[in-house]
Structure formats: structure tokens, C-alpha cells
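Field reference: sequence -> structure
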Amino acid sequence: VSAGVGAGMFYFAEGPTYGGKLFAGLSGDILCLVSVAGELTMIGVKQGGGSVNLTGLGFVEGKIGVGRFGKTISRDVVASYIDGSWDVDLR
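Structure field:
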């Protein structure tokens, strides 16, 4: 199993406006029969006295089986964090 996380931030004095970008990823295999992977990248801003709002896109994927006998399931992920509330939608 491997995982990765990254973050970046920015600031504009006019406003003031703060912002950032977040990344999270995960992948792994179990006994060469099951594999999973997923990534999510989000970007967002906070202007003045407002709250932090983030939105992002990613994917999740899983596979069961070996080679052409395997079954793969994949979904896109749309996520948002607005006013302290998370919303995650699989498509």
C-alpha cells in the first residue's frame, strides 16, 4: 500500500484572499487478487472574513481478479467543503 499527501498555499494582500491546494492519493494490492487506487485534488479560497470553501475532482478504482479474468470498477469523485460541511458525489 502506498499513500501520498500534498498541500500548497497562497495569499493576496488585496481582499485579503487566502487559498490553497490539497492532494491525497492511495493505491495498493492484496495478494495480487485485489487492487485499489484513488486520488483527490481540491483547491479553494477564503476571502475577507468568510469561510474556507474547497472544491475538487478525483477518482476511485478497484479491481478483483487476475488479468483478463478480473473485474474493474471505476468512479469519478466530485467533492466540496463549504461552510464547514462536506459533500462527496461518486459519478
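Note: The chain has no helices and six strands.
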